[in-house]
Each structure stands twice: as C-alpha cells, then as structure tokens.
Design brief:
10 strands, globular, 10-stranded parallel β-sheet, binds S-adenosylmethionine, binds 6-(5-methyl-2-OXO-imidazolidin-4-yl)-hexanoic acid, single chain, alpha/beta, 327 residues, TIM Barrel, binds iron/sulfur cluster
C-alpha cells in the first residue's frame, strides 16, 4: 500500500485533478485509517529565538533581516518543562522545541537541550526537536535522551531551494534527515507553500518526501506566514485550494504519514480548515504562538474540534497499538 517509487507524472496527475475529485480521493484513502477523526495536537516552544546566521528568506529569525522578533538565548530547563506541562494539560501529545540555530554544536547548550528532552519525555509526551543540522553522533545523543522525532523541513523543491536560501543547500537538509533516521528517530519533514514556487516545484518537493526509503512519519505543510522585514514579506497569501491540493496529494502518496496543517491557520476559516481535515490533515500546531508568529487560540481550536467532531490523539498511540497486536 505504501509506495516509494512515485513519478513526477503520477504526482502531477493527482495534484492537478479537479479539486473535489482530489478531495474525495484523498478522503477515501484517509478513511481507511480507522482513526481518521483523531487529530494529533503538537505545541511549539521556541527554546532559542532569533539571531540565526542563515538567510532563509521566509524566516523572521534570521539575524540579517530587520524584523520585530526579539532575540532570546537558550531557555532555562524548568521554563520549558512548565510550558510542556501547560501544553499537555491543554490536550497536546507532542512538544516540538525549536532553536534558531544553523546547526547543533557539541557544547553546554546542547547538553541543556538533551536535559530538556529527558524531562519532557518523562511527562509522557512525544518530544520533537528542530535545531538545524545534526551529525550522526548528535542524532544518537538526542535519541538516547528520549527524543521521539526530529523536524527538518526540505521547505521547497531542490530546483527552487537556491532562490530561498543560499547559506546551505538541499543536500545538507537530506543529510541531516538521514542522520536522524540512522539514530532511529522518527522524521518530521515537509515544506512551505507560498514562497513564489511553481506548481512543478510543489510536486517535486512532495516527490522527494514520497520517494524516501521510509516516508517521514510526519509531514508538515506550512503556508508562508509573510513577516515584515523578510524578503518574502510581500508574498500573496496562499489560496485555500492550493493548501487543499498539497494536503490531499501528500495524503494520497504518503497514506500512513501524519500530515500536519501547520503554519498559516490564523488566515483560514473553520470551513477551509475542515476541508483540509477532510483531505487528510490529521495534525495541527496548537497554542496561540507558533515559534514567533500568532496561531489560533487553544479555545478556538477546541470549539472547531467540537463543531467538526474531531478528537485529540493520545501520545505514543502507534507504539501502544503495536504492543497490543504483538501479544
Ligand atoms: N533553525 C532550524 C531549521 O531551520 O531547521 C529550526 C527552526 S526553523 C524556524 C523550522 C521551520 O519553520 C523551517 O524549516 C520552515 O519550514 C518553518 N518556517 C520558518 N519561518 C516560516 C514562515 N514565516 N512561514 C512558514 N513556515 C516557516
Ligand atoms: C514546521 O513545519 N512549522 C513550524 C515547526 N515545523 C518548527 C514552524 C513554523 C514557524 C512559522 C513562523 C514563526 O512562527 O516564526
Ligand atoms: Fe535560521 Fe531555521 Fe530561520 Fe533558517 S529557518 S533562518 S535556519 S531559524
């Protein structure tokens, strides 16, 4: 059922179907998953904010752009644990800790992150980190500390990558994902729509993910949040039908992955988001802030869940089900 030999033509044919046909096909596949009405709730904590040396042209945390983001050094461990507890009490099963780093360095700061991973894992939450590039040893140390997932987005197609970021290349991204895999971490990798890419760039980006030897367990689809001061500040808003096409296509070609309707939800109505859930999205970021930009409040998301009949997914459900069926 899960294929990793998708061709550009096949993906393009899916992506370009009439919208309601695409939505119907994706919903049909999604409903083969008996837990289709469960949505994983993940919370983000920016453990180190701003001052990043990279030049990602979408990012408010790049030091070279003049944005309103206030830089903040690495958070104390207890502060992160308190935020994790709050997120858990609000229904989150996963905590994603993000740092505005180009790469991880073997220093005291990394030791502190490892301690954060341990303590949040002890709360029985799935712990995810997104810290920039990692070598194999660092990935292993994170895994040993109890990390569940590593987020590292490919962001766009290989062809478009150079238009968006010049301080690293597409292969660097793939290498880090490989290092996370080698350490048996689950992989969270997706991209951003609305960076001025063409349809073929979107299809190529999805192809890279769907032809990995093992599909990423989570695939975040972000709509660009245009931020004043970044080179992409004036990009037009991604249309909701483009979001649905991305989510539905990801659902069809990566049927077992969790597809996350990620950045950009503040601009979407409940009915637009409902179509994304129908198309196979089964995860969101919750909490009124993403890393530095606003996100819908937990209260309004819970109202949306009630209206749509969705429920939050419990932590480690895959592992629990695997343990039950092994007996
Ligand atoms: N520095 C690390 C890295 O780049 O991998 C981790 C943090 S970085 C902020 C994580 C991801 O956030 C990026 O790969 C990108 O996909 C997403 N992101 C950043 N700024 C965004 C924006 N303005 N709109 C949508 N997604 C954004
Ligand atoms: C992902 O795919 N999106 C999140 C998370 N992974 C790290 C980040 C979105 C950031 C949006 C811009 C901001 O808030 O700074
Ligand atoms: Fe730095 Fe990550 Fe932002 Fe790029 S996306 S500027 S690497 S924080």
């Amino acid at each position: 059922m899960v294929r990793n030999n998708w061709t550009t033509e096949e993906i393009s044919e899916i992506y370009n179907k009439p919208l309601l046909d695409l939505l119907y096909d994706a919903a049909t596949i999604h409903r083969q998953n008996k837990d289709y009405s469960e949505v994983q709730i993940s919370s983000l904590v920016s453990i180190k904010t701003g001052g990043c040396p990279e030049d990602c042209s979408y990012c408010p945390q790049a030091a070279r752009y003049h944005t309103d983001v206030k830089s903040q050094g690495l958070m104390p461990i207890q502060e992160v644990v308190d935020l994790a507890k709050k997120a858990k009490s609000e229904g989150s099963s996963r905590l994603c800790m993000g740092a505005a780093w180009r790469e991880v360095k073997d220093n005291k700061q990394f030791d502190r992150v490892l301690e954060m991973v341990k303590e949040v894992n002890d709360l029985e939450m799935e712990v995810c980190c997104t810290l920039g590039m990692l070598n194999a040893n660092q990935a292993q140390r994170l895994a040993d500390a109890g990390l569940y997932a590593y987020n590292h987005n490919i962001d766009t197609s290989e062809e478009h990558y150079g238009e968006i970021i010049s301080t690293r290349n597409f292969d660097d991204r793939l290498k880090t994902i490989e290092n996370a895999r080698k350490a048996n971490l689950t992989v969270c990798s997706g991209g951003i729509v609305g960076l001025g890419e063409s349809t073929i760039d979107r299809i190529n980006m999805l192809k890279v993910l769907a032809t990995m030897e093992k599909h990423p367990e989570s695939v975040p689809i972000n709509a660009l949040v245009p931020v004043e001061g970044t080179p992409l500040a004036d990009q037009p808003r991604v249309s909701f039908d483009d979001m649905i096409r991305m989510i539905a296509t990801a659902r069809i070609i990566m049927p077992k992955s969790v597809v996350r309707l990620s950045a950009g939800r503040t601009e979407m109505s409940i009915s637009e988001q409902a179509m994304c859930f129908m198309a196979g999205a089964n995860s969101i970021f919750a909490g009124d802030k993403l890393l530095t930009t606003p996100n819908p409040s937990v209260k309004s998301d819970m109202e949306m869940f009630d209206i749509l009949g969705l429920t939050p997914r419990e932590a480690f459900k895959n592992e629990k089900q695997a343990a039950v069926s092994a007996h």
